[in-house]
Amino acid sequence: MDENILQVAASWLFQHEKIAVLTGAGISQESGIPTFRGNDGVWKHYRAQDLATPEAFARNPELVWEWYLYRRQLVREKKPNPAHYALVRLKNLKQKTELITQNVDGLHRRSGFGEHTEMHGYLFRDVCTRCSWEREDYESHEKIPHCPRCGSMMRPGVVWFGESIPEKAWQHFHRLSRECELLMVIGTSQVVYPAAALSQYVRQRSAYVIEINPELTTSCQGKSIYLGYKAGFILPKLIDELEKLFKKTREVDR
Ligand code: BV8
Ligand code: ZN
């Protein structure tokens, strides 16, 4: 592994305050949650447009609920991995770090990162299709849940293709796209918009970008560093390097 590039990436983190982090399914891969488009991907058996759209739900709510209940059962017992915890360490060292995730698995919640944005919603949320009553739902169901308030069918509280990102998430996304000094992009194929546009906006402002993805083949240039490793392997090492820089400064200050 190229120690030098890791130290450069750590020095970028050390020198900046407004750090934004965008994560995708890849950060949860080492927790045992399959990604969407990888060869272990959950889309493998299904096509996204056949399931994660309002039209698919209107056409066949039973099939869509079956897929989400399957994914809930897959995710329920999974735990955050060293990559999630490395981001908590980063947040403790650089308190202005802000996180936006595309993931709906809730592992950043469970890692103790604290406040962050789940821009595609949360897998364990049910929302009423009629009165919008909602709840977090960890029970395992046999069939489609119905609203206890109005009796209508409920839907998973996620953002489907063709649906807009929730307003609050949109605001956060836009603020970070304009303001962050450094963006870390971790474990995403960057094919889903608008999330995929974030690194483009940041590069256009010639701010710094650090990308972590084992399938990366791009070379580092200018203000972009690409770390072609699994997040659970490289992120803890990167934060170790950052901690060394803080320690060195404390020694000098003494
Ligand atoms: C919208 C929730 C306005 C549901 C998901 C341009 C502008 C705006 C919209 C569009 C546009 N072009 C197209 C669109 C429409 C569409 C879109 O982007 N389509 C794509 C397919 C082209 N976007 C939308 O509809 C969005 N809405 O823009 O509203 C609007 C309204 C109406 C009409 C038009 C526009 C809503 C998109 C949200 C969809 N919902 N999820 C659910 O989960 O069931 S998206 C789904 O994909 C997940 O949320 C997932 O997070 C997301 C992105 O996938 P990734 O996270 O990147 O996962 P993937 O498997 O692809 O990649 C994993 C990566 O990890 C790989 O690169 C791999 O190498 C790496 N990896 C693997 N292991 C590791 C690792 N990395 C590190 N460590 C490891 N160990
Ligand atoms: Zn209702």
Please explain how this structure is put together:
- It is built from nine helices and nine strands.
- The mean pLDDT is 93.
- Helix 1 crosses helix 9, helix 5 packs parallel to helix 9 and helix 7 runs parallel beside helix 8.
- The two termini are 33 Å apart.
- Helix content is 39%, strand content 16%.
- It folds into two domains: 164 residues, 3-Layer(aba) Sandwich (Rossmann fold); 82 residues, 2-Layer Sandwich (SIR2/SIRT2 'Small Domain').
- It has a six-stranded parallel β-sheet with strand order 3-2-1-7-8-9, sandwiched between helices.
- By secondary structure, the protein is an alpha/beta fold.
- It binds ligand BV8 and zinc ion.
- The site of ligand BV8 has 37 residues, from helix 9.
Our measurement of the CA-to-CA distance between the termini, rounded to an integer number of angstroms, reads 33 Å
Widest sheet, order of strands? 3-2-1-7-8-9
Question: Which ligands are bound?
Answer: ligand BV8, zinc ion
Secondary-structure-derived class: alpha/beta
Strand content: 15-25%
Question: Fraction of residues in helices?
Answer: 25-40%
User: Number of helical segments?
Assistant: 9
Rg is 19 Å
Count of discrete structural domains: 2
How can the largest sheet be summarized? 6 strands, parallel
Outline the low-pLDDT stretches: none
